[in-house]
């Protein structure tokens, strides 16, 4: 009769208990043919091995794989697992006034968009002459270009001076008479000057410089800028009749909705950083603003209005952001003064446009707009600071799991 499953289970339990407890006989004892003394000695050794293993298991666990430990591979030491746990180790607490200073970039751009909208409303309602708007904008653009050209000249002179210093140091270093110990400090100084000159290189380098021309590179750059301005001016004069009739078959409600969404895209996708590289392409913001000005200009009555508004949009959305970024890099007080000017102008123009008033409404708008802007900046900064307490980034001695996504399997 074959043995039942209960018989096998009892035998397995007996073997397991004998393996764990040295007082019981092990299965190999039934086949051991030695003397009783040798059998007792083997039982004693087995008991010592179990005792030593239990002591080793109570020892300190080390996260090392190059030596054998009495722990399984997936063992987790509950006592020391959370000893090196760190919460938000790289978090830098925000400061209120630094956030206020950084938010001025956003305030400047939003104020510029508000000034453009108020200018269009004033031109559309025939409160302001379009020629006066574009004349003042062109004058401010020309003054900003003069200041920008002065800054570029300063950067080029600094680079030229640093290159001259590097050349002088290289000429002073003799080639054969000095030993290696005396040459080494001067060579390190030369490397430092070379690094400084490379880091001070201006970010704007004109591609229109002709080495065979009789004009200096600076004058060539100025001439190229003047040619570009005249080309834009002539192109807008030729395209103004076409832009005026561009959306003749579209209702005004659709134009207002499209322009609103495009200006919101301009604010959302604008590059508010200080560096040249941006996560999102700046062309999205610029193109959406120019498209909004194009569809808005098609609602104006004459080609002069269309030309003025389109040129004003190019100046305020295409050229003005470049000047603002350069001004912030050069002078913080100038950046702050420009922010105050834009906020007061946008507040006064917006309040005068909404109420239909003149001087009194303008003054009230300046005061209310400044207060509302300052309160919004402060509340947003405090809100951002309060959100830091919810940041919970854990770091520890374990290796983070980083999945590798393969495009194809070989």
From TrEMBL:
It is a multi-pass membrane protein. Its main location: membrane. It is found in: Membrane. GO terms for cellular component: glycosylphosphatidylinositol-N-acetylglucosaminyltransferase (GPI-GnT) complex. This is Phosphatidylinositol N-acetylglucosaminyltransferase. Keywords: Glycosyltransferase, GPI-anchor biosynthesis, Membrane, Transferase, Transmembrane, Transmembrane helix. Belongs to the PIGC family. GO terms for biological process: GPI anchor biosynthetic process. The lineage of its organism: Eukaryota, Fungi, Dikarya, Ascomycota, Pezizomycotina. GO terms for molecular function: glycosyltransferase activity. Pathway: Glycolipid biosynthesis; glycosylphosphatidylinositol-anchor biosynthesis. The chain crosses the membrane at residues 306-323, 335-355, 361-385. InterPro entries: Plno_GlcNAc_GPI2. Residues 176-218 are annotated as: Disordered.
